[in-house]
Every structure is written in C-alpha cells, then in structure tokens.
Give the backbone structure.
Amino acid sequence: MAIPGVHPSSSLGYTNYLALQYGDETIRGYNISWAAENTSFAPAKGGGPGIDEWTIPNVVGVPGTHLSITALADQSGGSHLTIFFQENGTDIVQYDRDDTAGAFTYSEMPVNQ
C-alpha cells in the first residue's frame, strides 16, 4: 500500500493509528489493517464510504517535525489518542481525542529554555 503526498522527511508514529505529516505540513492518521502483503486502509467506521482516517484540523507542524503517538486507557474502559509534535520549533504540543472519534483538544507542553 502507498500513501501519496507524505512529507519527504516525515517521521512516523504508530499505535492504534499510523500518524504522519503530509506535504502540506498537516498531521494525519490512518487506521491500518495489517495483513502481510495484503495490508490496507481500514474502512470508515460505521460502514460509511472511504477509509478510517483523521487530520488535526487547522494545524500544521514544523516541516519534518518529529512526532509521537500513543493510545492511553480511559477510566471508562475505552482509550484516547495522544500525539506530540512541534508547531513552531520552540514548542512541544499535545493533541488528544477519543480513539474512536471526536474533536482534538490542545495543550502545550512546557519547554525549558
């Protein structure tokens, strides 16, 4: 499988989603169905058209930013995604959302100078 449009120096992160940076510097994630030579994008949740993917809206990272993504357990028994990257080169930002859907929330991580 191929993902066209990926930034040439994008780092990759994987937990429940493969996270990467696109050429337009947006941060995106894809749910992957791993099956050796038959690996593919997972279908959209709920049986809708398309694939299970997301983009952090109205956000761009530093070109080629390092990123990290993890899934953390919630007290309710579910999980949420947490992704870290840089928006301006002197920061580390954190975006969170429920693992299955929903909007991202934002927080900035302190960086000692």
